[in-house]
Amino acid sequence: MDADELPLIADSVAFVKGLKKPTVADVLRSAQAQGLVAIQPRCGVGGHEQMRALLLALEEGARPDILSLTIDSYTRLNQFDMALSALCNAPEELNGYPLVTHGWRRGRDLNQAISVPLEVRHGSPLPRRLFETAVASGITSFEGGGISYNLPYCKDVPLVDSLNAYAEIDARCGELAQAGVVVDRELFGSLTGVLVPPSVSLAISVLEAVMAAHAGVACISIAYPQSGNMVQDVAALRAIRSLAVRYLPPSVDVYPVLHEFMGVFPKSRARAEQLIFAGALTARLGGAAKVVTKTIQEGYGIPDASANIHGMRLARVANAPFIHSIRLDESALDEEQYWIEREVDEIVGPLLEAIDLPLAISSAFEDGSLDVPFSASRHARSSVMPCRDRAGAVRYLDAGGLPFSEDVRRRNRSLLEDRWLTADDHERMQLLMADINYFLEPPGEQEFDFVPAVVESATQGSDPEETYVA
Amino acid sequence: MKNEYCPDRRTVILCVAASDSHVVANHIIAYLLRSHGFNVVNLGACTTVSDICDALLRWPEAEAVLVGSLNGHARQDLADLPEAKDRGAITCPVIVGGNLSVAVDSDISKDAALYALGVDYILRDPSMIPAVLDRLRVQRDDDLAGSPASPRIEEPSNGC
């Protein structure tokens, strides 16, 4: 559609300045200063007019602080001809907005249509063209990292390749910051979204953040996925601050971000709402600058606009003044935070001494001293097996080749229920599946008082007030 | 591949079918088999029959191929299996497991179709895998010891 040349960097900088709205970095700074949590949905449809209508509906319906362009999977894999073909023949079948195919002029059109800044959310291991199109569109936040957007999303892209691609992007962010526009880089600590131990999530974000800061990135968001145990989650969000102080230069702004639960979502409206609100509350109590929301349709597929608006409004309740007085057990938080940071230190410590960090990371994944559970990629071993402890917090059933001290291993073991020791194969399978489906209600309890709309992009722009009158 | 390879251990090839990207059960099965002392060559999501043949060239000692299929396309994804078996590229038993069809009531016909493709064993409970591997190995050793014709592998009796 739009294969012409990208504008010069000065032109894109002037465009951002001319938008007369805050950048994502401005929004995060302001939220943090007020002790509030900025609200952001995930959203993306194929057609341009449909995308604009969706953004306007979400803005009108829930007043989010940041809006998203979620990118389709063809574009994520750089299959631009496939994206073009889908766009011409059946745009409603795309699972996101093909920004590269639409081109930067349409990206600017979306940006001008709304009053809040945009972030590109994708899942691409090699996103050079997507990034350049996003920058030319005046988009001031770009998600992903060379590890976190590789291992969960593709089968056979070498880590060195994706790390190099993100190093280029981070360097471009450095140039843009010099030119006067800060592009926030959100690191995808949610990884595979299934029982990700906090120290795995944070260790990988620390490594990506160190590389980003080195390349000149001025604003880094470290995203952590809600596990569902509030003490563990708040401790993890707090740990992001300490880890930033320890590992990153003071010149970089670092913001903790919470991704509402990424795993198997409950199907009933009541349970889904509980989980969404618990996530937003966790974000507020943990001092997150931003929460990326989920919806009551999560267990059924891609949400429509109404459900998305409802999810954001529900999350916003956690910004109410009265929440400020809620206190968790500080000694439990301190203990959990201590161990999370210690585990992260033990994972990243040896690597950060390496001269060539991308190479060291790639080798560490090969030998298992860096690992993520449930990876889609053959470049991670996934020898790590997580499970939930008595309180529902995510622990290591098996830490695989992670270089943990005996102290860390002992504490992990001590928190696991004895049943893990005595279970036979069949029971272990059942226990692991039960932990993965922790929030999924038993089949008999899945009746819901909300009939999810059939997922069609045509419904995404509908008037939210029909369903959710405040 | 992903795991530490020990020459003195039994080896299996594990994968998810060609059109399927569900890796959670795949990783849990790999974990269980490794805890039983197997070398697990895990080819992961979206593995074609041709990928399996390539892996068997590299790990000819593999005693079985385990294919997971959760999206209901097991039959289509294994369409190349008869050809691979005919030309001798796959000689060890092929075990298929998972949600093998989208419609629950058509399980039996789907099973028949998979056996017709040359699948040796169909499993719905992954915790049965080690026991089935043991049984298949005993069977193979008997065959090598000169038993008459190789018996057709029997259906699992308890519906597993």
From TrEMBL, chain A:
The keyword Isomerase applies. Keywords: Cobalamin, Cobalt, Isomerase. It comes from the Bacteria. Gene3D superfamilies: 3.90.970.10, Methylmalonyl-CoA mutase. GO terms for molecular function: cobalamin binding; methylaspartate mutase activity. The keyword Lipid biosynthesis does not apply. GO terms for biological process: anaerobic L-glutamate catabolic process. Pfam families: Met_asp_mut_E (PF06368). This is Glutamate mutase subunit E. It comes from Micromonospora peucetia.
TrEMBL record, chain B:
PROSITE patterns: B12_BINDING. SUPFAM superfamilies: Cobalamin (vitamin B12)-binding domain. InterPro entries: Cobalamin-bd, Cobalamin-bd_sf. Residues 9-143 form the B12-binding domain. One of its GO terms (molecular function) is metal ion binding. Pfam families: B12-binding. It comes from the Bacteria. This is Cobalamin-dependent protein.
